[in-house]
Amino acid sequence: MSEMTVHTQGQLRNGLLDAYTATRRFLIRGTRQLDVVLGSVLIPVIFVVLFGYVFGSSIRIPGGNYRSYLMPGLFAMSILFSSNNVAVAVATDMSEGVVDRFRTLPIARSAIVIGRSLSSFVLGIPVLAVMILCGLAVGWRPEDGLGNAILALLLFELFGFAIGWLGVLVGLVAGGAQAADVIISIPTFLLGFISSVFVDPALMPAWLRVIAYWNPVSAVVTAGRQLFGNTIGPAPAGVWSLDHPIATTLGLALIIIVVVAPICVRLYSHSER
Amino acid sequence: MSAPAISASHLARSFGTTHALVDVSLDVEAGTVCALLGRNGAGKTTTVRILTTLLRANAGHARVAGFDVTEQAPQVRTRIGVTGQTATMDELLTGAENLETIGRFCHLGAANSRRRAAALLEQFDLTAAARQLVKNYSGGMRRRLDLAASLIHDPEVLFLDEPTTGLDPVSRAEMWTSIRTLVAGGTTVLLTTQYLDEADRLADTIVVVDRGLVVAEGTPEQLKASIGRAFIRVTLPEADPATLEKVRRLLGEEAEVSGRSVSAPAPHGLTTLEEVVGQLREQGVTVHEVGLEHPSLDEVFSTVTDHSGHPNVPATSTAGKA
Hints:
Chain A contains 11 helices and no strands.
């Protein structure tokens, strides 16, 4: 009995160690692909210009500046778009010999996908930092104290971690890097635009409105606006999900992680066997 | 004799309607090198992938280092090293970082992984390139790094899937030297190759596979002997017709003249040679050279993998000593 406990403890210890080693490997890779990191920063920055100024100049928000309303939305967009990189990276790994090498090593089966997801989470932090600087430059401010601002950022990071798993999933099922890039773009675009990122969902047709109200992107953006104190713009929608955006974000993120992560581990360890 | 390091029996594997492996059995004794020889698509890589826990067999079973490859995959993985056909090193990491990562995955610990990585880079002549990204490595350097990576945890059994395919002759010779050094250290090796000379030079035993079946196996010498009989060839100083005719008659009915030499089957090998030399001396024939010639492995290979419908040689060679 005690022998078995020792065995399980050893397995857990090795598993954690493997996940750490994998994360470390992907982080080293990440720092050597600055062009990819730059790309994932550049698109949201372009969005700041496009939506903040090009479209934003024509959008009137009751009680304040559209850019203050927009910025929490663009934080979520930048996180959404970094899941493209995860999907492409996982698909690339799967199509190369690296995965075979890993599979013949005595590694915990979950280590590689966990490492991939954790490293994308860590690499997402500087991207979010750039977005915050960008926001500050165009006049956005957190207006509800440092504590709530930090809480908001943590919520965005949790959302990013959940979305990263979707990226891993797409990377595992796509046939190659290019396919992964195309496939992941569909949910990221749909989730990004059918949401409260740019406009008030209340004005959308009914069927789109339902999607927008229960979209995790809307939840995290609404939570962000609340915690940053950017409470300008449309009145509360009167839907439970957006009246309790923090709970909704936590709930949806956890559901995504709990459902998608085990699928990814299974897909990874059973592929080609 | 102890249990074989690799033991596979009746492995089969299909991919859809393609029968990659039909029936492959093989045993490799500990401390020996076995070459799995065959053309592209013969089933070599599928066999290796099953033995290295990467692929499940549809039928049959296999044990590596004493453990079942399906039921005890984790135990097998801690005891094997694998170098695949495709480069498995991360291009964005340096050579040293790649090896250290593999070492950590083998639970050697950070410090130990660094030490092993440095030692292996030294052993494979890669110390100068240790801090370079692998994407700047040449093909030969990548293969050597791959080989080094599969040795980081001192595996009992090493699998090399076409270790020299696509390498230039110099890199190929370097790989051969590296492999021979390993074998001298007692590692059991199963290598796949399409090159006969590679199998001939490196392997103690050869298993020839074709279309998912084992078509011949044995030592290189046994295989050669199972195919063709040895030939005796007598070469004269010059092409003098009278002498040539004398030698031809002496060598028997099947003798053939070509240029200034006469050749004939030598069913009893060295004994035949001794007899012929004695008779030549008795008859006072001056010769330039007399020797025995064995069929090359090339001939063996084309005979056993002959797709023209001729019966193949028996699957197991019965020929005795070389």
